[in-house]
Design goal:
Chains A, B: It comes from Natronospirillum operosum. Chains A, B: Keywords: DNA-binding, Transcription, Transcription regulation. The structure is a homodimer. The first copy, chain A, is of the alpha/beta class and about 230 residues long. The first copy, chain A, is built from eleven helices and eight strands. Chain A is about 50% helix and about 15% strand. Chain A binds a DNA duplex (30 and 30 nucleotides) through α4.
Chain lengths: ~230, ~230
DNA sequence: TTTATATTCAATTAATATGTTGAATATTAA
DNA sequence: TTAATATTCAACATATTAATTGAATATAAA
């Protein structure tokens, strides 16, 4: 007859505790922000602290919670610690949480409407899937534009992408082709950078579209990237 | 020039707060247990309370946290509330958390070794993928055995599955075919029921294998189920 | 209506998580 | 060695979350 030892329930409970640790780790806005940043590239504690507007001790502690949950790893390099995602599946995890929240929580829907307002007069911006972008790059019908911060571009970007931050866009406007569709991309679906770039370029009369998601998802999909 | 309103940072923070809510929701062992159960079938509060060994008030509060996070919905039916997963993607979420934890946390690896000990002498139990099982069912080379509790089987099971709990297995042993492989399945990868069934049947001389994952994953994959 | 029942709400206490400060550690450069 | 720097640890105050109890609500049956 099947045996159910007394310790089995305990083990199952411990197992559930360990899995809950992953939930706890992503269950805080600061840690989500850290993961979003680390999905773009590896960072030192100091940089993360600055980008998240946290002090170093706090940042370090959050990073260690993420590490204990198996979501990031640390490597010492000289006198600094470099943190990175353990695994591309963390990108999937963040994406899945985003998708579930977006489809089930009215609050998220509302906030997205606020963050990405649709100008009702205009036709909606064209959105490229990864497949369509690949095709466009192959037949040379699109110019690819990375509008993330320079450091993120340098650590890795889509092949052939031109890099311009929003601030640089105005001065280099004439360098962009008027006869081809410009496809802008940024950190991911909830990042506003590519939306802002698209709005500006469109206003300036360019043919412009937006990649549906960002660099991490592209890399996660196993598509080629140029690394700095 | 691109505009960054003062409220944008706030909106992004609120958005991250909402997403963190999903993490918080799955960041407690009791709530994970509740989700595992609800992945099998819809349940009333009372049943969940009993299965999780919690009192009703506590159970109800945990359920409401899951509901606020958009992971489950409630429907009143007479004087009772029926809870169910909002979405099959919740099954994906649990699976992804499991996979990440398993590959990144030594503690999880250790606990699994404890929960599913490999008898070193024996050849390891054969594990069927869903694809292989489908094929085996088609050509009639396997008998499918559901070893979950009766209520879960009745709410939905794999087509053609025979239901026997571990307790019932002994008495109905002779009804099982000796000339075909018996494939047992249960709640999912971390459920011990199918392992126990396999160990017993094997010891009794049956040709027996285990489905890699359980009923929720099968259903989630869009494969046919027989509903009670 | 009244009564019985399932569930949720409210209030309390206990437990846990967070942010902050200053000290401790580990590594490089002097 | 010593000094400088990046990071982590320890300890505290504060905030959030959990479990428990008893009361309140909503529905169905009497």
């Amino acid at each position: 007859m099947p045996v159910t030892t007394t310790s089995q329930a305990t083990t199952e409970h411990q197992l559930r505790d360990a899995l809950a640790g992953v939930g706890k780790a992503i269950g805080h806005p600061h840690r989500l922000r850290l993961l979003e940043l680390l999905a773009q590239r590896a960072y030192r504690v100091e940089q993360l602290a600055e980008l998240c507007d946290l002090n170093m001790a706090s940042t370090s502690q959050h990073l260690q919670q993420l590490r204990r949950a198996g979501l990031i790893t640390a490597r010492r390099e000289g006198r600094q610690m470099i943190y990175r995602l353990t695994d591309d599946r963390i990108v999937d995890l963040l994406g899945l949480v985003r998708d579930i929240a977006q489809s089930q929580l009215a609050e998220v829907e509302r906030l997205l409407g606020q963050l990405f307002p649709q100008d009702i007069d205009e036709a909606p911006t064209e959105v490229f899937t990864r497949e369509r972008l690949l095709q466009g790059l192959e037949n040379g019908s699109v110019t690819l534009l990375d509008v993330r911060p320079g450091a993120e571009f340098e650590a890795g970007h889509l092949p052939g992408a031109r890099h311009l931050t929003l601030a640089e866009l105005k001065q280099h406007l004439h360098e962009l082709p008027a006869d081809r569709t410009i496809v802008a991309y940024c950190r991911g679906p909830y990042c506003t950078l590519s939306h802002q770039a698209v709005a500006y370029l469109r206003q300036q009369g360019y043919r412009v579209a937006r990649l549906a998601d960002g660099f991490p998802e592209w890399k996660r999909a196993g598509l080629p990237v140029e690394e700095g």
